[in-house]
């Protein structure tokens, strides 16, 4: 099926026109499906109706799809510093913060000790 935007919901909406109430596994063969402009059925190809040939993709503007995060560009914000380099040393958690983190992550005692040792590195 080729789906298009319906113009209205009275006589051009596929889902509004198909009545599926009262049908079961045995009687689903008797359902009728409308042929409307918003849902065009596929066309079987034969000798009279050939398969369309693909020629080329549409031209895409390369500037619209370039990445903003180029490594060659310099940072424009002079005040920006990564979190770890604020004081030249890693950020250390206090014991209550570490306890809250362990509780939120539902860690066992062994896992909590392992996490604490990794955070100290």
Basic shape: elongated
Helix/strand structural class: mainly alpha
Strand content: under 5%
Largest sheet strand order: 1-2
Count the strands?
A: 2
Number of helices: 3
Q: Could you estimate the helical fraction of the residues in percent?
A: 10-25%
**N/C terminus separation:** 58 Å
Low-confidence stretches: none
Please give the radius of gyration in angstroms: 31 Å
Mean pLDDT: 76
Order of helices and strands: EHEHH
Question: What does the largest sheet look like?
Answer: 2 strands, antiparallel
Region (Disordered): 62-83
Protein name: Putative LOC100197081 [Hydra vulgaris]
Please characterize this protein's 3D structure.
With 121 residues, the protein is mainly alpha-helical. Among the domains are: 1-42, no CATH class; 86-120, no CATH class. It is 22% helix and 3% strand. The chain contains three helices and two strands. Strands 1-2 form a two-stranded antiparallel sheet. The longest helix is centred in the C-terminal third of the chain and has 12 residues, at 109-120. It is elongated. This is Putative LOC100197081 [Hydra vulgaris]. Residues 62-83 are annotated as: Disordered.
Q: Layout of SSEs?
A:
Blueprint: E1 2-3, H1 14-17, E2 39-40, H2 95-105, H3 109-120
Antiparallel strand pairs: 1-2
Protein name: Putative LOC100197081 [Hydra vulgaris]
Region (Disordered): 62-83
């Amino acid at each position: 099926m080729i789906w298009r935007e319906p113009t209205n919901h009275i006589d051009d909406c596929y889902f509004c026109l198909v009545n599926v109430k009262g049908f079961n596994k045995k009687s689903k063969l008797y359902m009728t499906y409308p042929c409307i402009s918003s849902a065009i059925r596929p066309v079987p190809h034969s000798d009279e109706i050939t398969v369309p040939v693909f020629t080329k993709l549409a031209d895409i503007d390369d500037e619209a799809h370039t990445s903003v995060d180029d490594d060659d560009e310099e940072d424009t914000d002079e005040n920006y510093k990564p979190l770890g380099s604020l004081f030249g040393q890693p950020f250390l958690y206090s014991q209550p913060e570490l306890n809250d983190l362990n509780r939120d992550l539902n860690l066992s005692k062994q896992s909590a000790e392992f996490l604490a040792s990794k955070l100290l590195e």
